[in-house]
Amino acid sequence: MLWQATAEPPDVRPFEASAGDGPGRFVARVIFSRPRVTVPAMLLAIVWQVGESAVPVVMGVAIDRALATGDAGQLATWIGVLVALYVALTGAARLTNRLNARAIQLLQHRLRVTLSTGVLHPGDGLARAPDGGVVSVMTNDVARLANAGLLVVLPIARIAAIGFIGASLLVTHWPLGVVALLGAPVAVWSMGMLSGRLSRDTREYQDLLAGTVGRAADLVAGYRVIKGVRAEAEATRRYRQASRETLAGAERNAGLLGRFLMASGMVNGVFVAAVTGLAGWFTVKGQLSIGGLITTVGLIQALLPQMQAIASVSIPNLANSRASAARIRDALRGTGSTERATSTPEVSPVPVLDVSVPGASIRVKPGELVGVRADDRTAAHVADALLNPRAGNIIEVRLDERPAHELTSPQYRTLVTVAPHRVTLFSGTVRDNLAPSASTPELLEAAVKAAACEDFAADLDGPVGEGGNRLSGGQRQRVALARALSTGAPLLVLHDPTTAVDPVTEQRIAERLRGVRANRSTLLLTSSPALLGCCDRVVDLPAAS
Amino acid sequence: MTGTHAAADDALPVANGRKTAGEVWRLSRGHRLRLAVVAILGIVSTTVDLIPPVAIGFFIDRVRTGTAGLGTVLTVTAAMALSAALGAAGTAVTIVLATRAYHAILAALREELVARALTLPQHTVERAGTGDLISRSSDDVTAVADAAPAVIPVVTVTAFTIVVSLGGLAALEWPYAVALAVVLPVHVFAMRWYLRTGPRVYRAERAAMSARAQQIVESQRGHATVLGFGLGEQRHRTVMTASWAVAVQALRARTVQSMLNARLNLGECLSLTAVLVTGFVLIGHGASTVGGATTAMLLVLRLLGPVNQLMFVIDTLQSALASLNRMIGVTTIAVADTADEPPAPRDPAHAVRLEDVTFGYGTGPRVLEGITLDIPTGQRVAVVGASGAGKSTLASVIAGIHPPGTGTVARPASTVVITQEIHVFAGTLRDNLTLAAPDATDDQLRAALDTTGAAGLLDLLPDGLDAVIGVGGHPLTDAQAQQLALARLLLTDPDLAILDEATAEAGSTQSGLLDRAADAALAGRTGLVIAHRLTQAAACDRIVVMEHGRITESGTHSGLIAAGGVYAALWSAWEAGQGT
Questions:
Q1: Burial class (CB in 10 A: 0-12, 13-18, 19+), B405
Q2: Ramachandran sector of residue B378 (left: φ over 0; alpha: ψ -120 to 50; beta: rest)
Q3: Which helix (H) or strand (E) holds A397?
Q4: Which of A27-31, A447-451, B182-186, B189-193 has the lowest mean pLDDT?
Q5: In this protein, which residues make up the domain named ABC transmembrane type-1 (chain A) (predicted)?
Q6: B507 and B469, same structural domain?
C-alpha cells in the first residue's frame, strides 16, 4: 500500500478552509496533515544526508589507517565500513524519496479534491463561476504547496548534515572547525548576493521566451486567418522581431550566468584552498594527522553544497509555497455549502414554469414549446436566471407557483436543464459528450436525429478534439443541441441553439423539435424565424433598459 | 465539412537524427569559431581543475617525508587558489559562449519554423491539423530552450571533466584508471537501463499532467454547461480520476529515479573500494605513495558528481532532441507546390470561373461533383445548402486551399477568405488590423472600423488603437472579432472576397449587425458568401443552392421564389416564423 498507488483515486476528505488561517498556518497544516509519513521520512533523510557527508571522512580514515600502514585487517575493516555506509545511505535515500513522493502526491490529490468540490464543481451553483485562474491554482499552486512537504524533510536533513560536518571538523581540530564553520556561511552568503541579480534576470528572460513562444502559438493558431488575408510575410516578420528580442535577452542572461559562475567558482575555490592551506599548516606543525588532513579536505568540499542547497532551494521553496497557499486560500474563500432550503416542496413531474421579467412574464405549461424573442442582453439575463435561480436576480423563476430558490439544487436540476448559448464540448467522442446526460439510448438516437446531425451521425465515436475543434462551428452547435434534447428533461431551456447552423439544416431542426420534445416543456430563446415558426406560442420581451 | 480527421500518414514529418545533425550544422554557420573556442577552452579549464587534487597529494607526500614547511604550505595554497580561480573563469567563459551559440542557433531555427509553418500549402496543414503545428512551434521550442541550462554544462564542462579527470588519472596514477575501468560496466548498465525505462515513464507522467490540465480547463470553461446539465458530480469524478492518474505516474517516475540513484551509489561504492584496494596493493609494492592514493581518491570523488549529473540530464537531453527532430521535421518540408494557386481568369469581366470541378478529400467520396460556376466581376453570390452539401469545400477550392480533383478553377490573384475560424491575435488593435496592410495609416484603420460598424470598439477600449486584445488582453466578443476580420478585409481591398463566417456565438441582434458589416465590406467587389442566415442570401445578386456536392438551383432571390424549389420552401418557412 505504501509503495504502489492504487489505480482508483483514494477517497480523501477535503481540507477545511477556515477563514482565520494565514498562509503560513495553512502551509503548516498541510505539511503536518500526514505526520505518519513525514516524520519517518525526515529521520531517514537525516541518515541519508549525514551518510553522504561521511563518505570522504571514511575514505580519509581508510587511507590513513590502512594504506599508510599497510595493515590488511584495517583495509578489510574500512572497506566494510564504506560498504555498510553506502548500504545505509542508499536504503535511507530510497525510503525517503518514496515516502516523500507518496506524501506529496496524496497531498496534491487532497488539495485538488478540496478545490474541485469547493470551486470548480460547487454543489449548489451559488458560488461565483470559477475564473481562468483556477486552472493554474489547481495545477501549479497545488504542486508548489504540496512540495512544502519536502520542506520539512530535506532542509532538516541538510541542517543535520551540516551539524555532522561541523562536529567532525571540530573533533578533528577545533580551531580549524571554527574557521570553516564561520567562513562557510560568508562564502555562501556572497554567492547568494551574486545569484540574486541572475535569478531576477532569468525570470525576465523566461518571460521573454514565454512571450515569443506564445506569439508563435498565437500566429499558428490564427493560421487560417493569416492565409485568408495573405499576411504570411508580415506575420513572419513580426515573429522574427520578437524572436530577436528574446535572443538578446538570452545572450544578456548568459553573460550574467557567466559572471555568477566565475565569481561563485572563485569564492568556492579560494575558500577550499584557504581551509586546506590552514589544515596543511596544522599538519606540518604536527597538530593534525594526514588522515585528518584528507578528512578535512573531503568535509570542506561537502559543506558548501549543503549550505547552498538551503539558501538557493529550500528558502525560495518556502516562499513559493506560502504564496501558493495564499492563492489557494483566496480561491476557496466564500465556498462551502450555502444550501438554504430545508424542506423539499412538492412539485409535479412536469411543473408549470413562470419567468417574470420586468414588464413581461413567460408561462410554459406542461408539454408546451414556447418561443421567446428578446434582444441579446435580455435573452442572456433570462438564461442566466434559469441557469442559476438562487443567484438573486431581478428575474424571478417559479415552478408550480413556488419560487425556484426554495427547491434544493439537485431537485431543481432534475426538473430544469439549461443549455447555454456558448457551446462547450468536453474532450472525447461525440458519444462521450452525449451519453452522461442522456436519459435513455433511444432518446440519444432520437436527439441526434432531431438535431439534424446527419453529416456525422454515423461516426458518433469519432473524437471531437480539444474544445470540439475537430468539428465545424455548426457541427459543435448541433452536438450541443443533441446533448440538450437527449436529457429528456421535464423542462428544457434552449438559448439561440442554431446561430451557426445553415438555413437548410435549421429548417430541418425546426421541423423535428416538436417530436423529440413531445409531452415535455421547452422554452426556446431565439429570434430565428425558422425556430419561432415551430413554437406553440411566441412571447416578445421588451428590451432591457 | 471542416471536421477532417488527421490520419497518421497525413501527420507532419519528424526528422531523423542524421537530418537533424545536418540541419544543426547548417544553422551553426557563423558560430563555428565560437564553438571551436568552447571546445579548446573547455579542455583547458578542466585540465586546470586537476591541479588542486594533485597539489594535495604532492603536499601529503612532502609531509610524510618531512620536507614540508611554511613555504610548501603557501605554494600549495596559492596553486590551489589560482587554479580554482582560473578554472572557474575558463569554465564560465566556456558556458557563456556555448549558451550564446545554442540560443542563436535555436532562434534561427524557430524563426525558420514559424516562417515555414505559415508558408506551407494550406491543405498539408489542414490534413495534419493545426494542433501539431502549434505544439511544434511552442512546446517544442520551449523544451529545447529550457534544456539549455541542463544540457550546455553537460556537453561542455561535465563531459570534459570526465574525460580530462580520467585522462589525468591515467597519466598521473595509471593503475587507478585501470581499476576504475573495471568498475565502469556498472555505470554503463545503469545508463542503459535508465535510457530504456526512464523516458517512457516521464512521457507517461507528462501526458497524464496535460490530460489533467485539459480536464480542469474544460470544467472551468464549460462551467455553464456543467451547471445547466447538472454534470458537477460527473465532472468532479473525471477531474479526480485525471488527478490521481498523475499521482500514479509520478510515483512510478520517482521510483525509477530512486532506482537509478541506487545503481549510481553502487557504482560509487565500487569505485571508491577499487581506489582503496589498488592504493593498498601499489603502496605495498612501493609503486605509489599515500599522496598519490589521495590524489586518486580526490579525482574519483570529483568524477562522481559529473557522472551522476550526466545520468540525470540524459532524459532532458533526449526529450530536447526529440523536440528538435519535430521542429526540423517541419523546416525541412520541401515546398515545391506553390503552383497550387488557381490562375487569374482570362476575361476580366468574369472574376471567377469553375468548369466541371470535382473534388474529394484524399481517397474519400467526392464532395463536389461537376460544379460549373461563373461569377461576373462585381457580382455577389450566396451559396445555400445543408451541412455536408459541400459549401465550405467549394469555397476552399475557389480560394486555392485545395486543388480541384478534375476541372479548372480561375479566380483573381487578389482574393481574401474569411473562414469560420475566429482568431484575435495577441497584440494591439492596430497590430491586428495592420497584419493584412502593414502600411495603413491610423486614419485608414479608423475608417475601416467605422465602415464595419466597429467604431464603437475604439470608445469601448481604453487605449483605442493601442488597446491590447487577444490572449491576455482585453477580451473581444466573437461578433467584435468578426468585425475586426471584416475591417481587415476592407484594408486589404481584394478583388474577390469569400465569406464563410458562421459567428456561432453571436446572438440574434449581433447577427443583424454582422450582416450589415459584411455588406459594407463586400461593397464594390466580387463576393462569394456561404450563407448562414437566409437574410444574408436574400441580399445577394444571385443565389446558388447546393445539395450533395452539386448545384441544384441558381438564380436571383425573386427568380428562385417564383421557381418554387428548395429555396422557395425555405423562404416561406422563414417568413412564416417571422410573422409569429
A1: middle
A2: left
A3: strand A396-399
A4: A27-31
A5: 41-313
A6: yes
B71 CB within 8 Å of a chain A CB:
no
Range of the domain at B277: 174-287
- Return the C-alpha cell found at B193: 537501463
Q: How far apart are CA A454 and CA B545, in angstroms?
A: 19
Tell me chain B's radius of gyration from C-alpha atoms: 35
pLDDT (tens digit, 9 = 90+) per residue, A467-486?
777 787 788 899 999 999 99
Residue B537 and residue A456: Cβ atoms within 8 Å?
A: no
Whole-model pTM: value is 0.81
* CB contacts, 8 Å: B284 with chain A: 70
Q: Is residue B2 part of a domain?
A: no
- Residues B261-267 have a mean pLDDT of 91
Query: In this structure, are B161 and B228 located in the same domain?
Result: no
Buried b (16+ CB within 10 A) or exposed e, B236-274: bebbbebbbbbbbbbbbbbbbbbbbbbbbbbbbbbbbbb
Distance CA A515, CA A341 (A): 36
Task: Identify whether residues B21 and B117 lie together within a single domain.
Answer: yes
User: Of A464-473, A503-512, B102-111, B191-200, which one has max mean pLDDT?
Assistant: B102-111
Which of these, B543, B519, B529, lies nearest to B499 by C-alpha position? B529
**Same domain, yes or no: B167 and B178:** no
Nearest residue in chain A measured CA to CA from B548: A455
Other Cβ atoms closer than 10 A to A129: 16
Residue B113 cell numbers, joined: 519554423
Q: B302 vs chain A: nearest CA distance in angstroms?
A: 10
Does B109 share its domain with B207? no
Mutate to test the interface with B, among A502, A505, A532, A539 (most CBs of B within 10 A): A502
Alpha-helical runs (H) found in A285-375? 290-309, 315-332
Taking an 8 Å cut-off on Cβ atoms, the answer to whether B114 and A219 are in contact is: yes
Across the A:B interface, residue pairs with CB atoms under 8 Å apart total 550
Asked if A502 lies within 8 A of B532 by C-beta distance, the reply is yes
Residues of B in contact with A232 (CB under 8 A): 118-119
Number of domains in chain B: 3
Domains of chain A and CATH, by start:
23-173+288-332 (1.20.1560.10), 353-540 (3.40.50.300)
Q: Which of A73-77, A100-104, B533-537: highest mean pLDDT?
A: A73-77
**Closest alpha carbon within chain A to B484:** A225
Residue A277: exposed, middle, or buried by beta-carbon count in 10 A (0-12, 13-18, 19+)? buried
Instruction: Indicate whether B508 pLDDT > 70.
Output: no
% residues pLDDT > 90 (chain A): 31
Q: How many helices (H) and strands (E) does chain B have?
A: 21, 11
The secondary structure element, H or E, covering residue B120 is none
Least Cα separation, residue B400 to chain A (angstroms): 10
Distinct helix (H) and strand (E) counts, chain A: 18, 9
Cβ atoms of residues A242 and A212 within 8 Å: yes
Would you say residue B344 lies in a domain?
no
Judge if B390 and B470 occupy the same domain.
yes
| B342 within some domain | no
Residue A465: the pLDDT is: 76
Q: Are residues B486 and B572 in the same domain?
A: yes
The alpha-carbon radius of gyration of chain A (Å, integer) is 34
Mean pLDDT, rounded, of chain A = 85
The rounded distance, in Å, linking the Cα atoms of A128 and A119 is 8
CATH of residue B162's domain is 1.20.1560.10
Do B231 and B332 lie in one domain? The reply is: no
Q: How far off is chain A from B189, nearest CA to CA, in Å?
A: 18
Q: Residue A356: helix, strand or coil by DSSP?
A: strand
Please tell me the predicted confidence (pLDDT) of residue B4: 34
B298, part of any domain = no
Tally Cβ neighbours within 10 Å of residue A195.
19
